[in-house]
Design goal:
By secondary structure, the protein is an alpha/beta fold. The protein folds into two domains: about 200 residues, Quinone Oxidoreductase, Chain A, domain 1 (Alpha-Beta Complex); about 140 residues, NAD(P)-binding Rossmann-like Domain (Rossmann fold, 3-Layer(aba) Sandwich), CATH 3.40.50.720. It has eleven helices and 18 strands. Helix 4 runs parallel beside helix 5.
């Protein structure tokens, strides 16, 4: 079938909205008509080749839409279902079988190869292969081929066009707090970076009852949003000794911290701001091979550092929980969102890269 899709043809190149051919779904695939799709930092760093995703490629991995066709082996989904789309895993390795699917041994194979695991691609242009299957969706497009395992069915009463970012950026930040760090009520947390991931973490920290929630960023408007969403303190790091300020606020450092920027110097601050036995979660995406340094004595005194992928989330379990909190008014993720017509994808990218917008969502029918 003919579809509209945004193709990146060269490293750091623009998103070129073009007509492509999309093959019919295989037996284990689901064809989804995309209604809305978020733009995530991971789309942009893969465009820039932080990780070697082959080009030309259709990115997009925070899609939501309506099921149009299901393969013969697919159960649990039918035409007309509303779905949010998340990431895909193998389902068979040890982490997957233990419910730690974000650490699937085949995570790259199923999400970043630019093809299906068997090496094929369903996308083409004038008979030439276009890479796709990004996060088993490539949802910067009017239609996407997905897999039953990365779909989450949602109620028809919900604003479907807004739900895609629950499948990555929002569940990553919220899950880092709720699923990975699991802070007790009254504890303290410092969150470095007030983008989608960091602000989702702020909301989650507020939901679970953290007593001190410190948001750190360089943009005052984002810090104001953090306060609105539950931060008790904010720090503009432009000309502030962030670690000293956090110790001033807390007395001895925070119990938890989250590094959401991918900047090595910030990762060091996120560890140095901890109290003894504090835990730092690292989530920011950096170019492959990026390193950061730590004071060995600081870690020796009970501090821990751990990486967190997708907020330790099982999407079919966690996304419905976030939706429940949203419907109760306790997780207002819609305050992060600005919508754009799909044709304006490059303007949306420019706005998110400049810090003007937190979470852009592209609307296919706008």
């Amino acid at each position: 079938m003919k579809i509209q899709a945004a193709v990146v043809r060269e490293q750091s190149g623009p998103f070129d909205v073009s007509e492509l051919d999309l093959a019919e779904p295989k037996d284990d695939e689901v064809l989804v008509k995309i209604v809305g799709v978020g733009i995530c930092h991971t789309d942009l760093v893969c465009r820039d080749q932080y990780f070697p995703v082959p080009l030309p490629c259709v990115f997009g991995h925070e899609g939501s839409g309506i099921v149009e066709k299901v393969g013969r082996q697919v159960v649990g989904f039918e035409k007309g279902d509303h779905v949010a789309i998340s990431y895909k895993t193998c389902g068979n390795c040890e982490p997957c079988l233990q419910g730690q699917i974000g650490y699937c041994h085949g995570l790259y194979e199923h999400n970043f190869n630019g093809t299906r695991p068997d090496g094929s691609s369903a996308l083409s242009e004038n008979g030439e292969t276009v890479h796709g299957h990004f996060f088993a969706q490539s949802s910067f497009a009017s239609h996407a081929l997905c897999h039953a395992s990365n779909l989450v069915k949602v109620d028809h009463s919900l604003p479907l066009e807004l739900l895609g970012p629950l499948g990555c950026g929002i569940q990553t930040g919220a899950g880092a707090v709720m699923n990975a760090l699991k802070p007790q009520a009254g504890t303290s947390i410092a969150i470095f970076g007030a983008g989608t991931v960091g602000l989702s973490a702020v909301m989650a920290a507020h939901v679970v009852g953290c007593g001190t929630i410190i948001a750190i960023d360089l943009v005052d408007d984002r810090l104001a949003t953090a306060t609105e969403l539950g931060a008790t303190h904010t720090i503009n790091a432009t000309d502030t000794d962030v670690v000293a300020k956090i110790h001033e606020i807390t007395g001895s450092g925070t119990h938890f911290s989250l590094e959401c920027t991918g900047i090595p110097q910030v990762a060091r601050q996120a560890v140095d701001c901890l109290t003894l036995t504090g835990i730092c979660g690292v989530m920011g995406v950096s170019p492959a091979g990026t390193e950061f340094n730590l004071d060995m004595n600081a870690v020796l005194f009970g501090r821990s550092v751990r990486g967190i992928i997708e907020g330790d989330s099982v999407p079919q379990v966690f996304i419905p929980r976030l939706i429940d909190l949203y419907q109760q008014g306790r997780f207002p993720f819609d305050k992060l969102i600005r919508t754009y017509p799909f044709a304006d994808i490059n303007q949306a990218v420019e706005d998110v890269e400049s810090g003007k917008v937190i979470k852009p969502i592209l609307l296919m029918n706008a």
